[in-house]
Amino acid sequence: MAAGDEEGQAAEPEAAVELAVEGPRSFKDLGVTDVLCEACDQLGWKMPTKIQLEAIPVALQGRDIIGLAETGSGKTGAFALPILQALLETPQRLFALVLTPTRELAFQISEQFEALGSSIGVHSTVIVGGIDTMSQSLALAKKPHIIIATPGRLVDHLENTKGFNLRALKFLVMDEADRILNMDFETEVDKILKVIPRDRKTFLFSATMTKKVQKLQRAALKNPVKCAVSSKYQTVEKLQQYYIFIPSKFKDSYLVYILNELAGNSFMIFCSTCNNTQRTALLLRNLGFTAIPLHGQMSQNKRLGSLNKFKAKARSILLATDVASRGLDIPHVDVVINFDIPTHSKDYIHRVGRTARAGRSGKSITFVTQYDVELFQRIEHLIGKKLPAFPMQEEEVMMLTERVAEAQRFARMELREQGEKKRSRNDDDDDTEEAIGVRNKVAGGKKKKRKAF
Ligand code: AMP
């Protein structure tokens, strides 16, 4: 039975870049100049995300913007493209300042400016704490076009670095303003606002509209246009999403390869059917992995048992269908593997939302076989970006195939035995671990000596 049919539950979206919902409108349609459209194209940005669709035309008209959008919505592009376009029109050093709450975000933003602006020779500098101030002073002396900074360190330089000022600044971006203010950077932000020109454009982006943000908006923005994207989709800022494109018959070997490569992490592996969940769990256990299934054909007790073992870290791999995972309190996992690609794209969002929660980082890897290309394209369309391929050594995968084939044979045998046992006692229990125990006894404990590979 297809997982999506089991209990007919709707997916609860948890992470996505929101694409524009109206008909396809290109960056060019929004007024973005050709050279920047090409840069978007090179980044694989085929069409604007929703926040870009709303913010870019307004920004290009020279208006201030208050953007309600989170990391993951494409908001960096929403402010970077209009800034770069204005820079192209009136080239100037120390043109724009982006304030952001954390170092990580500062580097991410800088990467996007560099990527979008590389063909037009844009120079940007990151000014954040924890890095030697002297090298930063030297970088500032070269007068970059764009500065991406955390407020504290920038104030340091404004106060102490000789010859550095922002008196000619044309654009100020306050990114993740709610977080900036929650981190008690209010004084620093006030100091910065006092030393930059009043005659400038300001973009304020925030995930939430708190009282402090409203106050900042009143102090820093002039007659802004509000651009909001639905907050229905939560963002996952530290989720690294990958795919692997592989022949369907080698899926098991690739799975084993990845589990070895990322050993030490906790995994959640999604399969499309109860049967495949059970089979894959048996297969992995035969290879010495601590894997446990969770699916709709298990009793509630068995499901909770599986979940508790996984939570207690007694098992590092949880194999699940979409439905079994919903409505249960799944703990944080490091890596989500879409072993079977979801048939409904929104399930993808739900699945990968199992990792990178609450500011932690996480990975997701989606298996794409020759039969899944269209489904995968739909997922990329939904999340609004092209995913990178997960790096793999094919020869190493191929070296695993023999052992995997042996484990597949055992798994099939065990699955058959379980089916027969269930039919004879009309039992819905999950027998994965018992079955393995029996087989190990039959095999004289051979498995124990096996290395989990
Ligand atoms: P951000 O919300 O700005 O941190 O962006 C989140 C991710 O979406 C980044 O990896 C961007 O490269 C990507 N992105 C931004 N705009 C687009 C777009 N129009 N199409 C596809 N991906 C995009």
TrEMBL record:
DEAD-box RNA helicase Q domain: residues covered: 25-53
The protein's name in its UniProt record: Probable ATP-dependent RNA helicase DDX47
Subunit structure: Interacts with AGO1 and AGO2. Interacts with GABARAP. Interacts with NOL8; the interaction is RNA-dependent.
Pfam families with a match to the protein in the record: DEAD, Helicase_C
Species whose genome carries this gene: Strix occidentalis caurina
Keyword ATP-binding part of the UniProt annotation: yes
Residue ranges of domain Helicase C-terminal in the record: 238-398
Subcellular location: Nucleus
Keyword Lipid biosynthesis: no
Basic residues bias locations: 444-453
Catalytic activity: ATP + H2O = ADP + phosphate + H(+)
The Helicase ATP-binding domain, residue ranges: 56-227
Location of region: Disordered: 414-453
Family: Belongs to the DEAD box helicase family. DDX47/RRP3 subfamily.
Entry EC number(s): 3.6.4.13
GO cellular component, as recorded: cytosol; nucleolus
Annotated motif Q motif, positions: 25-53
EC primary class: hydrolase
GO biological process: ribosome biogenesis
Keywords on record: ATP-binding, Helicase, Hydrolase, Nucleotide-binding, Nucleus, RNA-binding
SMART domains: DEXDc, HELICc
GO molecular function: ATP binding; hydrolase activity; RNA binding; RNA helicase activity
